[in-house]
Amino acid sequence: MNLQLELKMQIEELQRSNRELEAARSKYALLYDSAPVGYFTFDRGGVVRSVNLTGATLLGCDRTSLTDLHFENFVAIEDRFMFVDFLRMVFLGRDKMTCRVKLSLKDRPPLYVRIEAMAAGIGDECHAAMVDITERKQWEEYLRESEYNLSKAQSMSHVGSWRSDPVTGELRVSDELLRIMNITREEATSETLTDLIHPDDRDSVMARLQQGAAQGSSYEIEHRLLLKDGTSKWVYSIVEPSVNIARQVVKLYGTTQDITERKQSESRLRNKKNELQTIFDSVNDGVIVFDNNGSIQHLNHVCPEFFPSEILVGGSCRDVFHPDSPLAPLTCPVERALHGERVESSMVSVREGHTTRYIDVTANPIKDEFGEKTRALVFLRDMTLKRVHEMQLIQTEKMSSIGVLATGVAHEINNPLTSVAGYAEALLRRFRDEQSLASDSRLEVFPKYLEVIVREAHHCKGIISGLLNFGRKSDGLNYAVDINALLVEILELIKHQPNYEEMEIAVTLMENIPAILADPSALRQVFMNLLINACHAIKDGGSVDISTSYSGEDQAVSILVRDSGCGISPDVIDRIWDPFFTTKEVGKGVGLGLALSYNIVKRHGGEISVKSAVGGGSQFMVRLPVRGE
C-alpha cells in the first residue's frame, strides 16, 4: 500500500512538473517568437534550422518556409563572402562573434543587420541573434556625410573648429584647424595652440579667452599666429561658451578661420588706395567722383577752392552744377556722364568774398564690372588766368588796332593840318610885311584869328602824336622813360572825358627826375587806367591831384594819383586787383584795368598800393625803380 501511494505521489509530481515545464516552454516560446531580435540556428553550411517569428518577419518570409534554406541567399552579393567566412570562424571558435551584413530581400528595400553568433555545445550548430540596424546605418551614413561635408566646407573656407573642456583640459580639433596651425593631431594640445599665438598678440588673446570663460560670453577676435616654420598667419576666431544652469562654463566651442589672404588683400588694397589718393591729391585740377545717384563720393584737396565745404560734404551734382533745378539732364555734365557720355563744358564759380573763377569741366563715365552702376569722374580746371591772358590779348589787339587807326588818322589829318597851319603862318607874315593890310581897319582882327588857327592846329598835331605813342604796339624792350613827359602826354589824352571840364586837375611834377628803364607803352597803359578811374570816381565836380617825386635813398620814382571821388568800400578794397572785378556800372569797365596795371608794375620791379575811404576819395601810389629790372 505504501509503495503504491508513494508511486502515485511521484506520478502526480511528475505530471505537475510536466505541466509547469509545458507552461514554461509555452512562456519562453512566446518570448522567443515575440522578441525584438531575430533568433536563428544555423548548421555548418549556413542552413537555417530554426528561426523565431521576429527573424522570419525581418526576412519577409513565413517561418516554416525558411527551414532548410541557406541564409547566405538572403545576403547581398557583395557581403556573401564575408558572411560565409564569418560563419566559418564561429564554428572554429567558441567565443561570440559579430558581423554586419546587407540583406537583399525581394520586393523590399535593402536591410542592414548586425549578427552575433556563437557555436552550440555539440559543435554542429550555432545560435545567432540578428538585429535590424538599417536606421542606425542610415544615421551613420548621414553622420559620415555631414562630417565629410563639414570637413570640405572647413577646407574650402579655411575655417577650423575646436572644442575644449575647461575642467578636464580635453581638447578636440578638426583636421582643417590642424592644417591652419601646421601641426599633427598628436601635437594638438592647449599648450601648443597657445604657443602658436604671436608673442605680440598672446596677452590680449588669452585675456579675452579668460574673460569669455569667466563671464560665459561669446566674443570674436583677430590675431596673428607664428608657426613653427617661422611663417605667420592672420586668423579670425569666434568663441562660444556652453554654460550649465548655474551659469558655469562647461564647454568652449570655437571656430578659427585663416584670413591671411584677406589681410594681404586688405593691405594691398590700402596701399593701392594710398597710391591712388596720392595721385588724386597731386593733381592740380579739382577732381570729384560722383556715385551712380549723382552724389559726391570722393574729391581732392583742390575742390574746396572752387566750392563751399557745405556743398562738398554730402552734396550732389545739383549743388555743384544746377542748384536751381533738381534735374538738368541736358546741361549737367554729371547726369550726362552717368548716361555714358563724355562731356566738356565750362562754368563760372562766384563766391562771396572770393575771386570769381572760370572753370573748364570735363566729365567721364566710370562703368562698373557689370556695366550697371555707372559713376562719373569730373575734372575741374581753373582757367581764370588763361581767361585773363585772353582778355589781355584782346586788349592788346584793341590797342594795336587803335595804334594802326591812329597812324592812319595821323596820315590823313596831319597833311591838311600842316597846310592849314602853313597858310595861316603865311598870312601872318603878309600882315607883318605889308603895312597896308595891317592899317586896313576891316582886317584888324585877322592876325588874332590866324594866331588861334596856328596854335590849335599845332595842338591837334600834339594830341595825334600822343595818341600814336599810346597806341603804339610794345616791342617788349625797356627804354629810358621821362615819367613827367609821359604823364603830360596822358593828361592831354584824357581831356576828352565827359566831366573833365568840371574837375580841377592839379599837376605837381618834380623837376630833374632821373629817367627810369621801362616799357613806355606799358607805363602809358598803367597811368591811363589810374587817371581814367579817378575821373570816373568823381561826380558833380571834384579834384584830381597828380604828383611825382624821387628818392635818392631808395633809387625810386614815386607817382601819386589822388582823387576826391566816392572812394572804395573796405570789404572790396582787397579785391580791386583781381581780374574781372569791378564796381563800375555795366558798360564802363570789365575789371581788367587795375589787374593789368598791377602786373605791369610788378613786372618792372615796382610796387602799387591804394588808400581809400568811402566818400573820402582814393589815393594810388606807384613806385618804380630807376634802374628797372
Label this structure with key terms.
5 domains, Beta-Lactamase, 5-stranded antiparallel β-sheet, single chain, 24% strand, 629 residues, 22 strands, 18 helices
Task: Report on the architecture of this protein.
The protein has 629 residues and is α+β, with helices and mostly antiparallel strands. It folds into 5 domains: 24-132, PAS domain (Beta-Lactamase, 2-Layer Sandwich); 151-264, Beta-Lactamase (2-Layer Sandwich), CATH 3.30.450; 288-382, Beta-Lactamase; 383-473, Orthogonal Bundle (Helix Hairpins); 483-625, 2-Layer Sandwich (Heat Shock Protein 90). Helix content is 44%, strand content 24%. The protein has 18 helices and 22 strands. It has helices at residues 2-34, 53-59, 63-66, 77-92, 134-157, 175-181, 190-196, 199-215, 260-282, 309-312, 317-321, 333-338, 384-433, 435-439, 446-471, 483-493, 520-537, 593-603; strands at residues 38-43, 48-51, 97-103, 111-119, 125-132, 159-164, 171-173, 219-226, 232-243, 249-258, 286-290, 296-299, 343-349, 357-366, 375-382, 479-481, 503-508, 516-518, 542-551, 556-563, 607-612, 618-625. Strands 2-1-5-4-3 form a 5-stranded antiparallel β-sheet, with helices on both faces. A 5-stranded antiparallel β-sheet has the order 7-6-10-9-8, with helices on both faces. It has a 5-stranded antiparallel β-sheet with strand order 12-11-15-14-13. Strand 11 (286-290) and strand 12 (296-299) form a beta hairpin. Helix 15 packs across helix 16 and helix 16 (483-493) packs across helix 17 (520-537). It is rod-shaped and about 225 Å long. The model is unreliable at 586-590 (pLDDT under 50).
